[in-house]
Amino acid sequence: MVANSVDTNRLYLGVDGGGSKCKAIVVDTTGVVLGTGIGGPANPFHGVEQAMTSIVDSAYLALSDANLPAKLISELVVGMGLAGVNLPSMYEAMLQWQHPFRKLFLTTDLHIACLGAHEGNDGAIMITGTGSCGYSRIDGETTIIGAHGFPHGDIGSGAWLGLQAVTKVLTSLDGLEQDSAMNQTMLKYLNCENDLQLVEMVAKKPASFFAKLAFIVFDAAEQQDPLALSIVEVGASYISNVARSLQLAPPIRMSLIGGLTPKVMAWLAADVKGWLQPPVSPPEMGAVIYAKQQIESEI
Amino acid sequence: MVANSVDTNRLYLGVDGGGSKCKAIVVDTTGVVLGTGIGGPANPFHGVEQAMTSIVDSAYLALSDANLPAKLISELVVGMGLAGVNLPSMYEAMLQWQHPFRKLFLTTDLHIACLGAHEGNDGAIMITGTGSCGYSRIDGETTIIGAHGFPHGDIGSGAWLGLQAVTKVLTSLDGLEQDSAMNQTMLKYLNCENDLQLVEMVAKKPASFFAKLAFIVFDAAEQQDPLALSIVEVGASYISNVARSLQLAPPIRMSLIGGLTPKVMAWLAADVKGWLQPPVSPPEMGAVIYAKQQIESEI
After folding, report:
1. Which chain A residue has its CA at the smallest distance from B237's CA?
2. Which domains does chain A have, with CATH numbers?
C-alpha cells in the first residue's frame, strides 16, 4: 500500500489477539487501513511472552505492509483486544508489559469485536468459532455470557461440537448408540481404521483439534442424522438462549460472528434470527475504535 | 510381615499400575500376600520411563514390606496389569523394557481386575473411578466397552461427572439454567467467590481434578437437585447399558469396581443391580493369577 501522504503523527494500530493468531492493522486518522500483519498466538493465558512477541511481530508486519519504516512502531497508538484478559491475572500481566508503542489501550477480544460489529455503538455479539460466548455493552455496562473455555464450556462452539461428536461416535462404535453417519466420516477424516485408533488420535488434543471436526457434525445434521441432530440442537439452543439473555426492550443491535457463523445461523431459533444483523467492521477495526474512544476520553 | 519360611524359588509379584499410582504385592506359591508396596503413576501413556520407575519402586517396597532382600527382585515372576497398554503403541513400548525381574507377563489393568474379581474365572466388570469402562473375558474372548478417556469419553466416571457438573454450574451461574444446589457447593469447595474465579480454577485441569468433584454431584442428586439428577441419570444409564451389552444368557458373573462403586451402585437400573456380585480379590491379586495362568500355559 502507498504511504506517501500519511500523517505519521497519529497512526493507530488495531490488534485482535486470539489463541491461534494475532491480527494487526495500521490505520490513519481518517480510518483508512494502510497495512495488515498476522502474528502467532496472542492469548496470554497460553503464554504471556508468546503473546507479547506475536503482537510486536504483527505490528512490524503491518508497518511493512503499509510501506512504513519499522521505527514508527514507537509512534503507534494501539488499541488491543486480547483473548484471555477477561481473567484478572492475565489483564494484570499484560499491563506490566514494557511495550514499544506510544500508547497502549488494552481490553478484551470480546469488547473490540462488539465495537467493530456495531461501529462503536452499543450492541451485542455472539461468537461461535473454536470457542463460544455472548457479550453486550450498553451504556457502558458490560455483560458476558459463557466464555468458559474447553472442555467444560463454550457450548455450541466448534470445539464443543467436535468433542460431543467424538463422544457420540465412540459410543456408537461401541454399540451403545445407534449407527451414525458421523462414524465412518470421522474415522476416515482422521485416518483411523477403528475405534482404538480413534481413541489414540483424540487423546490430549486441544480445543483447536476438536473444532476442526465441527463440519462433520453439521454435514451429518443436514442429512438428518439423529446423533448429529441431537448435538447441533443442544448447541444452537444454547446460542439462542445466550442471545435472548442479552436482548433488551427495545431491541439492541445484535450480530453473530466467528468462523462458524454461516453454519450455526441456520439452526438458531426464529426470534433470534430476526434480531441478527451483519457486523459492520471486523474486531481489529473495533480495536482502533477503542483506542480513539480512549484518546478522546483522556482529552 | 514374616518371611522366614518363604520359598524364594517361586515368588510372584502382582502389579496394578494406574494413572495415579502403582500397587504391587509379593505373594508366595500358596497365594499368601507377604508384602505390599505403592509406587507412583504407572500408565505408560503418560510417560513410559515414569511407569517403569514406579513399577520397580513398588516392587522394592513390596519386598521390603515382606522383609525380603532387595536382590530377590531378579527372582520375581511378575504379573502386571497396566492402564494404557490397551493402546498397541504403549503395549509395544512396555514389551521393549529391559526389566529387572525373572519373568514379566504384561496385560491390561482391565484384565487383571476381571481376573481378581472372579478369581480367575470368566466374568465381566464395570469400573467407575476417575475413568469408566466395561470389560468381559469369556472363553478367552475379550470385550471392552468404553475406556475412551477424558474429556471425550468415560461417561459415568468421576471425571465425567465432575466435568458435566462444572458445565452445568457455569451455565446456571450465567442464568441459562435454573439455580442448582451444586453452584454454591462447588464454588465453596474450590475456594472461588464467583464464576470468573471458577473458570480460572478449572482451566487446563486433568481428569483427576474433575473426578474429585463427583461427590458434589452425588450429594446434590441425593437432594433431588434437577441439574445434578440429569447428570447422574445419564451417567448411570450409560453404565447400566455397558452392563447389558456385556451380559449373556445364561448370565455371567459381573462386578462393579472402582472408587465410585458405592455411589454409582444406587443409581443403576434394577436388572443390572440384580446381576452384580462383589469382587473376590483386588486387581493386584488378579495380576498374580494372570502370571500363574501364563506359567501354567507355558509348561
Report:
1. A176
2. 11-119+280-298 (3.30.420.40), 158-275 (3.30.420.40)
Q: In this structure, what is the dihedral angle of CA atoms A87, B182, A157, A56, given to the nearest 10 degrees?
A: 10
Q: Who among B87, B155, B202 is closest to A200 (CB)?
A: B87
Measured at the CA of A48, the angle between CA A42 and CA A54, to 5 degrees, comes to 35
Pairing of strands A254-257, B11-17: unpaired
Picking from B152, B176, B196, the nearest residue to A166 by CB comes out as B152
Report the alpha-carbon distance of residue B118 to residue B102 in Å, rounded: 27
- B146 to A174: CB separation less than 8 angstroms, yes or no: yes
Q: What is the ipTM of this complex?
A: 0.88
Helix axes A195-202, A181-189, angle to 10 degrees: 60
pTM of the full structure: 0.89
| Of the partner residues A147, A151, A199, the one whose CB lies closest to the CB of residue B163 | A151
- For B66-111, the pLDDT digits (tens) are 999 999 999 999 999 998 898 888 999 999 999 999 999 999 999 9
Interchain contact A245–B (C-beta under 8 A): yes
Portion 122-161 of B in contact with A at CB < 8 A: 145-149, 151-153, 155
Q: What's the CA gap between B207 and A153, in Å, rounded?
A: 15
